[in-house]
Amino acid sequence: MDRKLRCQDSGFWGCLAAVTEVLGCIEVTGCCVIEEERRVRANAREYNEKFQYASNCIKTSKYNIVTFLPVNLFEQFQEVANTYFLFLLILQLIPQISSLSWFTTIVPLVLVLTITAVKDATDDYFRHKSDNQVNNRQSQVLIGGVLRQEQWMNVRVGDIIKLENNQFVAADLLLLSSSEPHGLCYIETAELDGETNMKVRQAIPVTAELGDTSQLACFDGEVICEPPNNKLDKFGGTLYWKDNKYPLSNQNMLLRGCVLRNTEWCFGLVIFAGPDTKLMQNSGRTKFKRTSIDRLMNTLVLWIFGFLVCMGVILAIGNAIWEHEVGVCFQIYLPWDEGVHSAFFSGFLSFWSYIIILNTVVPISLYVSVEVIRLGHSYFINWDKKMYCAKRRTPAEARTTTLNEELGQVEYIFSDKTGTLTQNIMVFSKCSVNGHSYGDVQDMLGHKAELGERPEPVDFSFNPLADPRFQFWDPSLLEAVKLGDLHVHEFFRLLSLCHTVMSEEKSEGELLYKAQSPDEGALVTAARNFGFVFRSRTPKTITVQELGQAITYQLLAILDFNNIRKRMSVIVRSPEGKIRLYCKGADTILLERLHPLNQELTSITTDHLNEYAGEGLRTLVLAYRDLEESYYKDWSERLHRAGSVPEAREDHLARLYDEVEHDMMLLGATAIEDKLQQGVPETIAILTLANIKIWVLTGDKQETAVNIGYSCKMLTDDMTEVFVVTGHTVLEVREELRKAREKMMDASRSVCNGFSYQEKLSSNLTSVLEAIAGEYALVINGHSLAHALEADMEVEFLETACACKAVICCRVTPLQKAQVVELVKKYKKAVTLAIGDGANDVSMIKTAHIGVGISGQEGIQAVLASDYSFSQFKFLQRLLLVHGRWSYLRMCKFLCYFFYKNFAFTMVHFWFGFFCGFSAQTVYDQYFITLYNIVYTSLPVLAMGVFDQDVPEQRSMEYPKLYEPGQLNLLFNKREFFICIAQGIYTSILMFFIPYGVFADATRDDGAQLADYQSFAVTVATSLVIVVSVQIGLDTGFWTAINHFFIWGSLAAYFTILFTMHSDGLFRMFPNQFRFVGNAQNTLAQPTVWLTIALTAVVCIVPVVAFRFLKLDLKPELSDTVRYTQLVRKKQKTQHRCMRHAGRAGSRRSGYAFSHQEGFGELIMSGKNMRLSSLALSSFAPRPSASWIDTLRKKKGGEGSSAGSPSGAADKTLRV
């Protein structure tokens, strides 16, 4: 049995004896209790409070007023840089070693901490606001025999609450009674499993009669059930009342998050509340997300700190040696500071002084700039009009500012299906009747008309009961109905009779259908519009209005649908007394059960089915069989006896159903379109070209998910094979996964010759992916996935799944979605993105590196838990390929330049140390040191980090391969970092030694010696500002007015501030601070100084320009090629060719009633679900070449796999 650990408070031991007396099944370990079962007594708060069950208050926020400051500071100081700067601040407070003022560090540190804290507080405020909104919802609670309005947070386990139509269920309830006959109620579970079709729940008979508050107030039944767990589809317990016990199942439960539909009222007993509810048990915790660049920067900061320590040690040793050998000779006029009595101690103090001086290799302004850039990128997402949905008036929203660049590195997308890929709207699209296909509209030339060329839809005005929302485009089908085609009439008669739809007629002619699955609703609505209107039903009759004439059929039996049968049938008696069986189901099942006389018609219909399936439509075959009266009576008696058998009842019924559903006559087939969201196939195709792997994780049934897979082009008939894993045991699942891997390897062996295959394996023994030839897909059910995710099999499952192009997981729970995401994160070390629209997706969204919420039909819980949100799946393409790629590109270029300019700036102090007696003297004055990263160089790099582009947005979408450098971490990694600091060190060497060499013998215009400390400082500083400004110009790929203004404005600001600080006016105001009057003017008036600056700039920049030119000419990147192509196109003024999308020519894919719930037919026949009113009424283009990227990807795949445990499994699998 599942166990839940519940830690008690200080009052635990005081009530332990009383609790153990009652519960008797609690294990005590220290001060913790393991709940093995739950006891709940109705209307007994005092009794239930002994167990200290959770209240109904939920909390998704991270902080409160008390914990915000310590917890947030703790999270921020997990950033190594923040801890590093705090350490530097402490050092600067020690006057003996500090040569810089303390405010140079504390001001930017506090600024960074404050900005981040405000952002985190704002995010958490909205979480608190959402929690309060939910917790303060009102519910009617039965207290003391009276219904009282209580907030959700005040509901307790054991309370009886009343729900009304269209209300959310406040907690996990045991249904006691309802306004419907036999204690039935209808619920919508979209927040739990994403399904919008209604489901039925039923109270146990003994409580179904408790319809008023006086009876319920006297109800004192006790429920003993399982402890809190996350299994949405299972519940086990027993109700003890009046010395009797009654078994309870999931069919008796209303779970939190469901919505009561088409039921006036119901009463329920609270079993689980708040965090113990199954909805909250499936919700992951709010996690602190950091990007891979953040994690890399933490590592780099540690390396830089180590490098800084090494430089400090070298200079400290130099200081000790210099003081011992040289400095001792100058003690008379250069005495040691107070407290310094030896050269060794002088060196020790010098070490800490240099640590402070050289700390600008990682200035804190780096982190301020990173936050500003990320904020700018977030605003670009929010302001993007191309991601704005006018229909819903919903813009895209970046709900976090810390993950933007990771959008450019996504390798795996985990998507929900219902409401994310699809609209969950079923449309009757085409049909085949007696060998004739209807639904294709042709133009004047006889060709198939495109969507934009379609004529007006069929006019159903002849039918006053037609649904005005239904549209069909082929008028020939309506003509066949009007002309009296018997086959067409029988076709629609079957659709109007063979179903479990409930009809409600609020007023004359205003029909409302309540279908268990949207498929059935679409079929019955189609029959309704073509003149065969399902009006009403009773347990024994169905009334249909056929072309204006009301006909009542006697309903003799419903042969219910289930996943094994994949079909349903009804047996009806017509007014003429003829008994007929109507059947509809999956083509793979039904075509085998037809009479041999149907061979020719079967062949034609099969061709139509292949055509429909090729278009991604959900197909269904229709057939009928006439039954003799004597045979039916005999069969009916056997059916009645089988229904009374206590053991193996389902097996007996299945055999009888199978017997009667034979030798049927084929009527035709239907094709239903499960409407995808606009642009889904194109989006998936483009993302696939960007080497992003898409996995669909859905709570729907297998057939539904597979059909959607074909519709959105994840699955194609060009694939080598689609593996379906449906094992119910560990051994079965392991065997199916093993067979799938063997088939993939066998196919690879047949493609490759022995030598090359062996050579390939020997070079990459670590991953199945490298050895697979062909395209495969994997489909796995929830019960099989539960075994596949176990510790001893998860590696095998992951390797098999990653070898496939597409993966679809069906019937998965919210927690399983999160486990699949966690599995890929654990072993593949890839950036993951989860996208969904319902509460059942929240756990997955929180687990993935990036969570995206679709603001759709299923509430806003997914949006509230997400990092980014928008209204349609197609916007994901733009979010990743444009905003994500640009954010990654900009951040990488920003970091490379930032480290370069700061190493160039700081390392000058290191070289100067060898010429100043290692005295910790700075080259520049402290004002330049303070303003360098804040004023002189901050804005140009910010402009590049916010606005830069390598190619326009249209090219980013047109060439998905441009996305791959981010996945491979090519633009900023440890290698690029070392290149940047090498360039910075090279620049610093030239920056110091060229002016030093020139100044050694240079003279002024008046013959005086040019070399002095301040003139040298001005020359080096001016050279540095000019060189780094030219470098940022070279790095900028997309020039805007802002870039020009910031670059040239920063240069102008430098000279303005420089001349101001050396002016006579400032000296008069602050004589102790600005002593060197006129130094800058005099120094920069010398031609020698400007020649020195020019020489330094040229020597620093020319090698960079030459290297980039050669690289562009000899080994251009894809972005370089795209830019060149763009220039050529502009010159030639040619248009891009439009690419046509090729449709899939597919085989049969059956998609019948995938959301249908078994057992509903039996419910109809019993009459328990009947209202009194019802009784009374009787290619994309081929991928562009990118061999260098493919080589790097293979190299990365080999390294990544060898680091994780999947490699071990792959080694065993791949050895031949």
TrEMBL record:
Its cofactor is Mg(2+). Residues 863-1116 form the P-type ATPase C-terminal domain. It catalyses: ATP + H2O + phospholipidSide 1 = ADP + phosphate + phospholipidSide 2. Its EC number is 7.6.2.1. It is found in: Endomembrane system; Membrane. It is a multi-pass membrane protein. GO terms for biological process: Golgi organization; phospholipid translocation. Residues 1202-1216 have a biased composition (Low complexity). Gene3D superfamilies: Calcium-transporting ATPase, cytoplasmic domain N, Calcium-transporting ATPase, cytoplasmic transduction domain A, HAD superfamily/HAD-like. It comes from the Eukaryota. Residues 1192-1216 are annotated as: Disordered. ATP binds at residues 416-418, 520, 561, 584, 618, 698-700, 811, 817, 840-841. Mg(2+) binds at residues 416, 418, 837, 841. The keyword ATP-binding applies. Residues 40-106 form the P-type ATPase N-terminal domain. GO terms for molecular function: ATP binding; ATP hydrolysis activity; magnesium ion binding; phosphatidylcholine flippase activity. The chain crosses the membrane at residues 100-118, 300-322, 342-368, 894-915, 927-947, 977-996, 1016-1034, 1041-1061, 1089-1110. Belongs to the cation transport ATPase (P-type) (TC 3.A.3) family. Type IV subfamily. This is Phospholipid-transporting ATPase. It comes from Zonotrichia albicollis. The lineage of its organism: Eukaryota, Metazoa, Chordata, Craniata, Vertebrata. The gene is ATP8B2.
